[in-house]
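Input (structure):
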């Protein structure tokens, strides 16, 4: 497993025990024994992943949000991922951990409510306008149509999107609720198999997962591409811009539009189902 264990002499006995074993075997052992030495080793190995995710999320954040704070929030997500990871689910730990790390950072940002109230209000207004308009049209609304429905020019609409870009980046982790507001299913959660749930709940979550997938597939091609590259391929805004041959600010705008449109679609579906 290479660098899973640290250099602390206290780890020597555990290092001898793990010598020659694969990481998969060590994950199975940790799930069975909850050996704290193994957990510490996994934390040390995947600590750089926390900094990577924090670095991505630090782009475009206000000055009062420190990078070290994001890293600290992310560490809690990494520990949670290590404790809950099931090697039998055929999901790579890195993929699973990125979702948990990102979610932990988002949860803390929401808790401290770092977004100005006026910006959050504007985000809700745009989301409501998109939802209402697309429900009336029965199709994806254009930027011009959305701008006109809000009584503003396209340029004003684009400037509004840039202002609320920082709020939309955290929305993808809590786009759907079932039963009550404490039972949440997100795009990120869909990669985790809910093995301990009863059959009825499993079926319900699978239906919601399909709704989310359908909503993403209905997005305009570029917006869909941005979501896939950012959330599933872990590409940076700069890297996405290179793929789409546009600027980072344009990618940010596409991302904001995609998230607002996605939330509006899911809200309309939920109103029709619940």
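Output (sequence):
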């Amino acid at each position: 497993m290479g660098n899973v264990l640290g250099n602390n002499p206290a780890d020597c006995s555990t290092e001898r025990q793990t010598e020659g074993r694969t990481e998969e075997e060590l994950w199975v052992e940790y799930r069975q024994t909850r050996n704290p030495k193994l957990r510490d080793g996994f934390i040390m190995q995947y600590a750089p992943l926390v900094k990577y995710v924090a670095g991505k999320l630090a782009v475009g954040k206000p000055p009062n949000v420190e990078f070290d704070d994001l890293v600290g929030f992310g560490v809690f997500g990494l520990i949670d991922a290590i404790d809950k990871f099931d090697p039998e689910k055929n999901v790579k730990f890195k993929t699973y951990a990125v979702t948990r790390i990102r979610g932990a950072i988002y949860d803390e940002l929401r808790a401290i409510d770092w977004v100005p109230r006026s910006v959050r209000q504007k985000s809700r207004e745009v989301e409501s306008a998109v939802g209402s308009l697309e429900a009336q049209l029965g199709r994806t609304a254009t930027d011009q149509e959305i701008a006109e429905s809000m009584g503003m020019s396209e340029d004003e609409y684009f400037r509004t999107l840039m202002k609320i870009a920082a709020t939309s980046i955290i929305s993808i982790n809590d786009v759907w609720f079932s039963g009550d507001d404490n039972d949440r299913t997100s795009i990120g959660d869909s990669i985790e198999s809910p093995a301990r749930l009863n059959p009825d709940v499993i079926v319900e979550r699978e239906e919601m997962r399909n709704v989310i997938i359908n909503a993403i597939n209905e997005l305009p091609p570029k917006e869909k591409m941005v979501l896939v590259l950012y959330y599933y391929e872990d590409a940076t805004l700069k890297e996405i811009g290179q793929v789409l041959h546009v600027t980072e600010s344009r990618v940010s705008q596409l991302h904001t539009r995609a998230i607002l449109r996605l939330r509006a679609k899911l809200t309309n579906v939920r109103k029709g189902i619940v």
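Notes: Residues 117-273 form a domain with the Butyryl-CoA Dehydrogenase, subunit A; domain 3 fold (CATH 1.20.140). The first strand starts at residue 177 and ends at 178.
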